[in-house]
Amino acid sequence: MTQSHSIQGPTCEHCALSRNCTEKAEQLANKQNNPVLTHKIYHKGDKLYCAGDAFNALYIVRSGSAKASISSMDAEEQIVDFCFPGDLVGTDGFAQLQHAQTVTFLETSSVCYISLHSVNALLANSEQGRQQLLGNMSRSLLMQQQQTMSYHCMTSAQRVAGFLLDLSARLAKRGLSSNQLTLSMTRIDIANYLGMAIETISRLLTTMQQQGLIQVQRRQVTLLDIPQLQALSRFEVEENDPLFMQSNTALLHANSYTSQAMIQ
C-alpha cells in the first residue's frame, strides 16, 4: 500500500458523509465516543491497495476520486468502477481475504480507514451496519451486472449517455449539482471502462454537444438536457437509423480543434 500522511480520524458525528457510509452504524456498535477511523491523504497515482494485497480494512472515500481495476493474464488493465466521496471501497477482499482489484487515485484524495477488527465488530453488533454493508455490496454487484449487459446489449451512444447519467445521479445523491460534472478520469479511462475506443468517446461527445444535450470544456461537462439523455440511454439506435446517420454526418464536418480539446 502506498505510504501516506495519517491522522486519527473524526468520529461519525463530525463527519459530513456519515449518512452515506457505515461510519454512523459503527459508532452505534461501539457505543463510545472514541475515534474509530484513520483519515489518510493520498495523491494522484497513489494506490490504496493492489490486487493480491491482504484484506485488512474497508475504506470510505472522503474526498477526491479513484478508479478500481483488474488485470488480465497479459497485464491489460480493465477498469471496473470509479469511486467518489461517500463510496465504500474494499469489499472485494471478503471472498479470499485478499483484494481482487487495484484502486488508484485520480486526484488528491482522502479516505477513512475502518480496520477489519472494527468491521467484524460492526457486523456482529449492529443490524444497521450489516444492512448498510450488504446494501453496498449488492449495489456493487448490480453495477457490475449492468456493465456486463452494456457490453452486449447497448450501443456506444447508450453507454456514454448512461455513464454521464450515472455520474449525475451519484452527485445528486450527495447533495451536489447533477448538471455540472468534473471528470477526474481521463478520456482513456472512460473508454476503457465502457469498452470503447477513445476516438468513439470523442466523436459521441462531439455529437451530443452539437445536438445541445451537453456542453464540454476539457474536463468540465454540463448536462443541458437530462430528459433527452435519458431517452438516448434507453433508445436502441441502429446504425442505419436516420438520427444515427445524421449525427455521424455532422461528425465528419466537426471542427478538429473541438475533438482534440475533448481528448485532452
What can you see in these coordinates?
The structure is a single chain. This protein has helices spanning about 25-30, 115-125, 125-155, 155-175, 185-195, 200-210, 225-235, 240-250, 255-264, and strands at about 5-10, 40, 45-50, 55-65, 65-70, 75-85, 90, 100-105, 110-115, 180, 215, 220-225. Helix 1 (about 25-30) crosses helix 2, helix 4 crosses helix 7 (about 225-235) and helix 5 crosses helix 6 (about 200-210). It has two domains: about 20-140, Jelly Rolls (Sandwich), CATH 2.60.120.10; about 155-264, Winged helix-like DNA-binding domain superfamily/Winged helix DNA-binding domain (Arc Repressor Mutant, subunit A, Orthogonal Bundle). The chain has a five-stranded antiparallel sheet with strand order 1-2-9-4-7. The chain has a four-stranded antiparallel sheet with strand order 3-8-5-6. Strands 10-12-11 form a three-stranded antiparallel sheet. The protein has about 260 residues and is of the alpha+beta class. The chain has nine helices and twelve strands.
**Rg over alpha carbons:** 20 Å
Q: If you average the pLDDT, what whole number results?
A: 77
- Proportion of beta-strand residues: 15-25%
Shape annotation: globular
Q: What is the string of helix and strand elements?
A: EHEEEEEEEEHHHEHHEEHHH
Helix/strand/pairing category = alpha+beta
In DSSP terms (H or I, runs of 4 or more residues), the helix count works out at 9
Integer tally of domains? 2
Distance between the termini: 29 Å
Low-confidence stretches: 1-17, 19-29, 31-35, 236-264
Number of strands: 12
Helix content: 40-55%
Q: Mind describing the biggest β-sheet? A: 5 strands, antiparallel
By CATH, the topology of the largest domain is: Jelly Rolls
CATH H level, superfamily name of the largest domain: Jelly Rolls
**Gross CATH architecture of the largest domain:** Sandwich
Main CATH class of the largest domain: Mainly Beta
- Strands of the biggest beta sheet: in what spatial order? 1-2-9-4-7
